[in-house]
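Lab meeting notes turned into a lecture example. A postdoc, R.K., suggested we walk through two folding results consecutively so the class can see how the record format repeats. The first protein's sequence and structure tokens come next.
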Amino acid sequence: MPRIAAVALAFTMLATACSQAPELPANADAELIEGSEIFRARCASCHGSSGGGGIGRPLTDIEARLSDAEQRSVVVNGRGTMPRFADVLAEHEIDAVVRYTREAL
């Protein structure tokens, strides 16, 4: 049984890695670019490069499910299997990645 779980996890991660990240608009500001970079480095391995989910929940249309403050709280404090990022990311980095997921995914 552990082999099946490992194969399923590997397949999920491969499928996640192969999905396309959204392109930022040419006039994207520094915060949105920073959010994109943080997402790619810290979030995409679980949420998918396009935010469609994988190990972690999909983030597409996150604004329909969580307010900005609620989403920020999940990033800061973690929830379920999602780790907390309060000790990993600075406040401005959390703001940038939350904005990126709300505006670009």
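The second example is placed directly after the first for contrast:
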Amino acid sequence: MIHRPHVDWFALAPIDALLAAAAIALLAAVLVPRRTRRTTGAAVCALGYATAFGFAIALYVRSPHGTGVVADALHRDRFTALAQIFVAGAGLLATGVSLRERMRDDHVAEYYALLAAAGSGMAFFVASNNLMTLFLGLEWLSISLYILCALDRDLIGGLEAGLKYLIVGSFGSAVLLFGSALVYGETGHLDFAGINSVHHSSLAVFGLAMLIAGLGFKSSAAPFHMWTPDVYEGAPTPVTAFMAAATKTVALVVMLRVLTTAFGQDARLWTVAVAVIAVASLTIGNLAALVQRNVKRMLAYSSISHAGFMLIAIAANNALGARALLYYLIPYAAMSIGAFAVVAARERELSVPVTFENLAGFGWERPLLGVAMWTFMFGFAGFPLTGGFVGKFYAFSAAYRHGWTWLVIVGVVATLVSLYYYLGVVRAMFMRRPEELQLAPVGGSPPRETVLQAVVVACVVVTVGSFFAVQPLIDLAKHASHALPF
């Protein structure tokens, strides 16, 4: 008689909900008439993410104590559930941004199937409890994103973005897999707790370095960021929004769990390594963003910079740092999706890439989107009345508690540098001189997109609301971080 491990289906519910949505969207690609495939695929994908969001909330409430799932291959706890809430929320908003994206109806249902499949892979990835499921989850989400980047054949640069992401992403996955093999060969364990229970020699430390590098590729941290600007610019803007919010979220959350759970005894090494990567990300991201004129490329380098701020929280290696990271991800994900949604709206108006030049006057033409973009830029810069201010403050506080005042100074200087390009977007939208503005195209204003505007408003609410609802959100992050061994 074959012994089968007990399966906690409730713990797998967010993953299964998104898998079911992906399967139904694929069926819609062949069973539903072409004229209704877009709305059917979007509705199914949105329903899948909404269902996963509800299941993840229920898991958070009903998982006060961590337990293993499927022979301890996955972990059920509030840390996993909160990360799955982030993924489901980002996916739901990205689906709304995608609804009116200009793409052929030939493969539009497949687009939503892949969007749901990527979300299910992320939900699986953040639940991983050993090196095997870690790699499987990484490949699951990555393959879906590779195809999403190149799915729109009419998009200039889309195929190039998909190919670059495939090559560089595959290299990053190979580095992570090789590092996992070294760690397993040295320790004889795949599970994180087992790895930490064995003394680590130089071979395991080398494997640790490769794991950090592999996760650094996915989180767009320097010097593993080389794919980010080209892929963000070339991919469909809703896909870019989803990657900027969800992919970075899961990569950083998993990095925090792996480093603290599997390599706690090597903290003296990886804290310094992560701090150096954070400084490199802040430096490269901010300096490169200063000279960008394409808004998507500027936001890409901005995401590299924000990876540096969040890595400061990880490098602190304390409970405050874990709470800072989990809190920071909430406004950051909202600001990223909201900013790219505004870019998508401008792209659909002009049918050309969005630059600082053709943003001129946009704030007066579209007051709602203009004010929203203004809010997102101020949030990225860390201004008060946005969650970005509190997120940076908590990350700096964690580093200060660790005793790294120098890292706080680097972060503050990077924030000051970022004001130039964030406020440059605001200037372009609201403060260009009349002689710099170009005549609008004949035919009147394009129709307003109700769903996209609703997504933007939701992102503004989260960005500003996270400033005023700090304590409840910090409490959520605090309860989730109890799953980690601080």
